[in-house]
Amino acid sequence: MSVDLAHIRQVMAEADCLHPEAEVEAAIDAVASQINAQLAERNPVVFCVMNGGLIFAGKLAPKLNFPLELSYLHATRYCNQTSGGELFWKAKPEISFIDRDVLIIDDILDEGHTLGAIIDFCRHAGAAAVHTAVLIDKDHQRKARPDFKADYVGLTCVDRYVFGYGMDYKGYWRNAPGIYAVKGL
Questions:
Q1: 169 Cβ partners below 8 Å, 6+ apart?
Q2: Distance, C-alpha 144 to centroid of its chain
Q3: How many domains does the chain have?
Q4: Confidence (pLDDT) at 177
Q5: Distance from C-alpha of 39 to C-alpha of 122, rounded to nearest angstrom
Q6: Cβ–Cβ < 8 Å for 116, 148
Q7: pTM (2 decimals)?
Q8: What is the SS3 assignment for the chain?
Q9: What is the mean pLDDT of the segment spanning 41-52?
Q10: What is the CATH number of the domain that holds 12?
Q11: For site-directed labelling of 20, which of 55, 104, 107, 127 has its Cα 20 to 30 A away?
Q12: Contact 148, 120 (CB under 8 A)
């Protein structure tokens, strides 16, 4: 499958910036402050959800001022597409979190199917408590579970197809320095 880089560049050129870099960075600082206040004495295992959570976790982790174990897991429903399918585990957690608090860091809470499945997995595998931090919570009424909310949320955004700060458009623009919405989506 070849990629039309001209199209990928055009998507960025036409995108609407919903949250500029300074606003995103301030939101990450605020999330770190909340986590520091609530989890510093809980000895959490912190898992970054790959690939989307990579940038948020990388910016957030150095702001957490307590000892923690940091690892990753990789579960996806998107596989570089623009709509989700069945949950696919690429890498399950390798650090034991039995009887420990777990903090899951992800890029976005959209409908919540992936994050919900990860939470269920951690609880079933013996976590004492599971906490979630997302950079973006998409504002709509299609959550997988009616009252599903992340414990720590950086920003909310409108119900559009967004990319940047770890979120991608067809595998590209995870590195965009802000949160952008694809024109027309």
A1: 8, 11, 82, 161, 163, 182
A2: 16
A3: 1
A4: 96
A5: 17
A6: yes
A7: 0.91
A8: CCCCHHHHHHHHHHCEEEEEHHHHHHHHHHHHHHHHHHHCCCCCEEEEECCCCHHHHHHHHHHCCCCCEEEEEEEECCCCCCCCCCCEEEECCCCCCCCCEEEEEEEEECCCHHHHHHHHHHHHCCCCEEEEEEEEEECCCCCCCCCCCCCEEEEEECCCCEEECCECECCECCCCCEEEECCCC
A9: 95
A10: 3.40.50.2020
A11: 104
A12: no
* 10: pLDDT strictly greater than 70: yes
Domain that holds residue 133: 5-181
Percent of the residues in the chain that have a pLDDT greater than 70, as a whole number: 94
Q: Look at residues 163, 154, 156 and name the one whose alpha carbon lies nearest to residue 181.
A: 163
